[in-house]
Task: inverse folding
């Protein structure tokens, strides 16, 4: 007799009029002629699980036909607490001695179907109520096979997540169904990313299918279709060498140095493509490789805590990193935390530690108490238990507990700014993660008290897919913290953490067991590579990377490529892979090997111009340069401002070089490389204090923007040449409100002298509304340059406006015919330009 769970048939409620968008790749076009010897229809209806089977039995076959039935409702697995088999692979701490750990937690999930895709209604981490396991369910597939008796077959990937920890165990389940019944459900777990607890789990159990319309089903289907469409294009890792043949890449280096059985997955994100390796399990390739759940472990110190700190700084100002921990964490309001800032804590330099040896505290009993504590109170107590041993910001000691403190401090800081009810993880989710189109797996996090409303761990407890890692690393590296054209992260902090500022490499770590030291800043590690590591590094290269427990690395090379891998055998050998990835041409993010490995089109373009130097203007435009994107932007900005200043100086008989000399830190990328101390210096800049800004690309760019704005604002109101010179070279420059107040004083002073504002024939200003009293002249619209009868009041800036009550006369358009405004119509408001709306009173650009 077939073992089927019969449920009463209840017609589904009427569907909304709007149809769901199709998922890319649908519909299936196979014939259904599938030859199957494992997990046959008979196996799923009356068989029993005696062990794990090949993962291919759960995969969508090439000949799969489109599904004839649609699943919508709740799937509940019955008897999970005692069912199934278990085999230990690695268990040094004897977890398997607890019987409940050998079985699935309660599983009851709502599912909808869009074509051949089966979608769980709840995505990301689900709190199951189990004492040991939580759950993540991914999108699966539905299809028909000729041997299934007209029923539709479903396969779903899922993952068990250790409660209060970050270990992930990936599995699969499968069943048959039609409109009124469901077969038994076969499940198995044959893979994990977990250094200390590895096992196989399998079983076949009864299930219940409760048909009902799932709330928001159309939205769920559309969201999943968009999720699949938004994934980065993927290619096999072998395609990296064929796509870039001139780079000379040996793709066998990727994944090398890691025990094959411990390697979950790996890949290279480069040029908008995710070049991926296989997702290996003990039963062959994982059929849902792009949905394999991967734990963050300490990658969260960058991708959560570091990103949040940079975003808070971008939104609320440069004072955020200098906020004190004790001011925002009530439990830390003690003398041990005096002077410890957000920045110190993000840099693992609080000065509170027991041992300064490399990660000795992290592996000690104090940190074990922190990791074991699930409730907020005991976890915070353990985080604050380390004694004060050094001044803040002076000594690097790695503590996951410090990132927990930082996350709590940033949570309370956000509440003070955004109001009660704000949550730091939901805030960064909405601000950055959702706009990056990351998977739903990363939109939730583990928290204290095993609760969806607890305090986020901060330093671990996130979950990713291959696509998420590729997108986040591109966001930090090649995209410079921008989404589209909007700068989301503080550019100075990000440039420092990404090793784009030679003067600020971060705090130096203590030596590890091999004697190596690293740099650490805002949750990012950095390692220096030289020719001793590989000949491809002809000069020292600093590579920022994220690192996680057990053997997880995402190395973001300065040519825009990222090499990542997830493993669980405590292996961190990625030097060979980094050297191969560094051969790729630069796509952004800093100095790379592009000068040695140019694309074929670039070399051909340069070579096709006989007699022209490769570094000539045209060749440089078509070929990637070795300078960073920030440096190239600074050079362009510098040229524009110097050109404007020099033109003004020549008109006034001044020395152009004295008014705006070239600062040494902004020389073109192909000149004066190397130690900044060897670059030429100018006395004017030494006196002006600009040399100390040379160390920070962000400060230099900000200074140049201010200087350019001041030049435009100060010139029309008759400021003396010497005053303009001082304003341009002053450290930090004038703030915009100062400029506006100065303009108002000048304008009010000149109102005491009768004057008229006139225009020549053919250049009259366009008038919005009724013409102001006393205005003479008329004609059709045209360009205009307004001139006051006093030669110093020359209005040329496009933002200038003349105000006459409710009538605006714009300097951007005009009418034919000469005309003048009578002296009685002039006012301070008439003579002032409209300041840019994006500047606040602080002189900082407003947050996007």
Result:
């Amino acid at each position: 007799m077939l073992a089927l769970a019969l449920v009463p048939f209840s017609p589904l409620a009427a569907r909304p009029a709007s149809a769901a968008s199709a998922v890319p790749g649908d519909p299936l076009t196979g014939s259904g002629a599938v030859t199957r010897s494992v997990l046959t229809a008979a196996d799923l209806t009356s068989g029993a699980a005696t062990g794990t089977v090949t993962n291919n039995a759960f995969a969508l076959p090439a000949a799969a036909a489109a599904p004839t039935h649609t699943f919508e409702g709740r799937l509940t697995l019955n008897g999970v607490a005692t069912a199934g088999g278990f085999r230990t692979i690695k268990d040094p701490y004897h977890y398997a001695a607890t019987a409940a750990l050998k079985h699935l937690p309660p599983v009851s999930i709502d599912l909808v179907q869009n074509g051949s895709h089966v979608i769980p209604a709840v995505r990301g981490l689900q709190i199951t109520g189990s004492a040991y396991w939580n759950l993540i369910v991914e999108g699966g597939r539905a299809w028909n096979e000729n041997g299934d008796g007209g029923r539709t077959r479903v396969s779903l990937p899922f993952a068990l997540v250790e409660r209060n920890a970050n270990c992930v165990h990936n599995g699969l389940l499968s069943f048959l169904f039609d409109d009124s019944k469901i077969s038994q459900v076969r499940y198995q777990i044959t893979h994990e990313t977990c250094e200390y607890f590895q096992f196989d789990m399998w079983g076949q159990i009864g299930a219940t299918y409760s048909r009902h319309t799932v709330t928001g089903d159309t939205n769920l289907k559309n969201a999943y279709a968009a999720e699949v469409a938004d994934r980065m294009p993927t290619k096999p890792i072998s395609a990296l060498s064929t796509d870039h043949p001139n780079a000379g890449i040996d793709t066998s280096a990727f994944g090398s140095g890691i025990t094959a059985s411990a390697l979950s997955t790996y890949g290279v994100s480069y040029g908008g493509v995710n070049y991926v390796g296989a997702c290996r399990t003990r039963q062959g390739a994982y059929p849902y490789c792009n949905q394999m759940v991967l734990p963050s472990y300490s990658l969260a110190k960058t991708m959560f805590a570091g990103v949040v700190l940079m975003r808070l700084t971008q939104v609320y100002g440069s004072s955020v990193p200098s906020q004190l921990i004790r001011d925002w964490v009530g439990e830390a309001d003690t003398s041990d935390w005096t002077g410890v800032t957000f920045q110190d804590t993000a840099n693992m330099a609080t000065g509170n530690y027991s041992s300064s040896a490399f990660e000795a505290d992290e592996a000690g009993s104090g940190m074990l108490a922190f990791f074991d504590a699930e409730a907020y109170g005991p976890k915070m107590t353990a985080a604050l238990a380390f004694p004060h041993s050094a001044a803040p910001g002076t000594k690097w000691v790695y503590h996951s507990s410090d990132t927990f403190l930082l996350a709590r401090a940033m949570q309370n800081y956000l509440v003070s700014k955004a109001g009660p009810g704000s949550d730091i993880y939901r805030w960064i989710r909405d601000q950055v993660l959702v706009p990056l189109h990351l998977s739903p797996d990363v939109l939730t996090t583990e928290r204290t008290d095993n609760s969806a409303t607890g305090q986020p761990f901060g330093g671990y407890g996130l979950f990713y897919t291959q696509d998420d890692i590729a997108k986040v690393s591109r966001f930090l590296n090649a995209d410079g913290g921008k989404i589209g054209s909007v700068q989301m992260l503080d550019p100075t902090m990000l440039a420092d953490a990404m090793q784009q500022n030679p003067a600020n490499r971060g705090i130096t770590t203590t030596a590890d067991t091999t004697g190596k030291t690293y740099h650490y800043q805002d949750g990012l590690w950095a390692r220096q590579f030289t020719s001793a590591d590989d000949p491809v590094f002809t000069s020292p290269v600093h590579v920022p990377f994220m690192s996680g427990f057990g053997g997880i690395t995402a190395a973001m090379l300065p040519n825009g490529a990222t090499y990542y891998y997830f493993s669980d055998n405590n292996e961190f050998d990625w030097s060979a892979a980094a050297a191969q990835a560094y051969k790729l041409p630069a796509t952004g993010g800093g100095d790379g090997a592009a000068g040695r490995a140019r694309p074929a089109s670039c070399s051909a373009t340069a070579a096709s111009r006989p007699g022209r130097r490769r570094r000539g203007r045209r060749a440089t435009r078509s070929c990637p340069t070795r300078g960073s994107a920030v440096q190239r932007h600074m050079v362009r900005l510098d040229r524009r401002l110097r050109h404007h200043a020099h033109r003004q100086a020549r008109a006034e008989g001044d020395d152009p070089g004295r008014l705006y000399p070239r600062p040494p830190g902004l020389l073109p990328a192909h000149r004066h490389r190397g130690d900044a101390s060897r670059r030429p210096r100018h006395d004017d800049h030494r006196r002006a204090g600009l040399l100390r800004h040379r160390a920070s690309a962000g400060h230099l760019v900000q200074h140049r923007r201010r200087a350019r704005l001041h030049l435009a604002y100060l010139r029309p109101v008759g400021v003396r040449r010497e005053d303009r010179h001082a304003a341009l070279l002053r450290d930090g420059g004038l703030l915009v409100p100062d400029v506006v107040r100065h303009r108002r004083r000048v304008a009010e002073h000149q109102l005491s002298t009768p004057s008229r504002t006139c225009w020549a024939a053919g250049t009259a200003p366009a008038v919005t509304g009724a013409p102001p009293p006393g205005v003479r002249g008329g004609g059709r619209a045209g360009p205009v340059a307004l001139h006051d009868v006093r030669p110093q009041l020359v209005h040329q800036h496009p933002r200038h406006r003349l105000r006459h009550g409710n009538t605006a006369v714009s300097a951007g358009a005009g009418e034919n015919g000469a005309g003048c405004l009578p002296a009685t119509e002039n006012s301070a408001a008439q003579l002032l330009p409209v300041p840019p709306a994006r500047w606040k009173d602080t002189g900082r650009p407003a947050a996007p």
Notes: The longest strand covers residues 152-162. The chain has a mean pLDDT of 79.
